[in-house]
Amino acid sequence: MRRLLLIFLAAASLLAQSAKAPVYWLLWFDTEDFIEASSNDASMRLAQELERMRVPATFKIVGEKARYLEREQRQDVIRAIARYHDVGYHTENHSIPPTGAVYQEELGLLDGAAEFERREGAGLRDLQRIFGVNASCYGQPGSSWGPQANIALRKMGIPVYLDEGRQVGYNEQPFWYGGLLYVFNLRQYMIRVSLDEEADLAKAKERFRQGFEKLRATGGVMHTVYHPTEFVSKDFWDAVNFSRGANPDPKQWKSQPLRNKESSEKAYRLFFELVKYVRDTEGVQVVTARQLPQLFAHPLRSITPEAARDHLRRQLGGADGHSAADLLLAALGMTPQYVDGPDARVTTTWKQAGIPRWLWERSRKDVIDYIQFHHRLPAWAWLGNDKLSLPDFAATLAGDSGSGEVMVRSGKLAEESRISTEPCKHFDWLIHPQGFCAPKILEMARLQAWTLKPAQLR
Ligand SMILES: [Zn+2]
User: Fold this and answer.
1) Distance 395 CA to ligand 1 centre (A)
2) Partners of 307 in beta bridges
3) What is the 141 CA–ligand 1 centroid distance (Å)?
């Protein structure tokens, strides 16, 4: 009887647990300091201690940092990370100019993607060679973000974008963008504890608790980011060398001011206290970037052309877990597939209110052919020598009655509102040149908002 009761209680508790969705928590480290040697010891201590605590983390490693570990013969550090933790990528050179946003601001979508691949590819290959795994994710240094990277990252076999930033977001939870799974712009769900202020520990636990409770009903993702170098430094390694675009001769690179032993121990203690608190919160599941794609439903689902047109008629944008691009492809009768957003914005030059049906049909077929050929939405549809901008084309397609002349409708993509309108503030990073702003990157990001949609947990 007693045994039966125990079985019953165990089953009831399992049911109660499964009734609530898990809140996934990612702990990640931007591992980037290739100047100060004690940052390597910090990486090792974090990796070892977290393994003892059974908390796998994601180390996003800079290419030059991986080579630095190799040069310093720190196989112990490499092993401590690789045997238990996940490895992601964090650029070839981090803060050595020009950084990502600086060179991507000068380039378009495709040449920007190619340049990202050229500049950042070598570090990724070194990381693979030194750590023996493919990087599970990528994240930019500072706020040096650009949407062109998405195309390159897909080509480089990296399916996840993991970082914080303000350039793009979706309700402070993960989303699909540029064909990648983004854990980005989580804001209130990004939790850190100050490594210096004792009093912040209780507050950080409370911040975590509040975020956790908000997500508890539906499930969701929270994350925490540190840099191993923070545990040994008083200032950032790159701040003392590369501030405001500075580019000193490597022979002149200097170490940052370091913490003393006491300050360093305090930093570790406050951090591990927070980690313990999160780990022991019932309903939290610790995950790494490598597990993320399995946690979310497949981004492509089929939808009928009629339903897609209905959505697009109500609002030119995504709906019901589909991106605007997904809906446009469905409305065109195409099979579900990922395609990039357009590489330019144009104004419609077609002046008449209606389009003869034969010309519209030719234009529609040409758009389908363009998408199949380029795996990208066209910036416009041709009507003879005239253009119908992509938003106007999509609105016209959605509103077409199917007979007689096709009435032209104008459209504006709703998801553009989810892209930052702060080209200076949201690229303000100590390492960028003074006054750096990236309006062209944000415009490109808006064009890629055709691909934006929330990521849905399985
Ligand atoms: Zn970094």
Assistant:
1) 41
2) none
3) 4
- What pLDDT, on a 0 to 100 scale, did the predictor assign at position 434? 96
In this prediction, residues 116-143 reach a mean pLDDT of 98
- Joined tokens for residue 278: 């999160």
Q: Cα(236) to centroid of ligand 1, in Å? A: 10
pLDDT at 9 > cutoff 90: no
C-alpha 49 to ligand 1 mean position (Å): 22
| Ligand 1 center to 325 CA (angstroms) | 32
With pLDDT > 90 as the criterion, what percentage of the chain qualifies?
Answer: 95
Q: Are 58 and 137 in contact (CB under 8 A)?
A: yes
**Ligand 1 mean position, distance from CA 340 (Å):** 27
pLDDT confidence of residue 382: 98
Residue at 289: amino acid letter: A
- Alpha carbon of 178 to ligand 1 centroid (Å): 22
Q: Compute the average pLDDT of residues 135-142.
A: 98
CA of residue 285 to ligand 1 center, whole Å: 25
Q: Is the pLDDT of residue 11 over 90?
A: no
Distance 312 CA to ligand 1 centre (A): 39
Predicted local confidence at residue 15, as pLDDT: 47
CB atoms closer than 10 angstroms to residue 5: 9
Assigned token pair, 89: 């990528």
Per-residue pLDDT tens over the stretch 429-449: 999 999 999 999 999 999 999
21 C-alpha to center of ligand 1: Å? 32
Quote the ligand 1 centre to 164 CA distance (angstroms): 11
Q: What is the pLDDT of residue 20?
A: 74
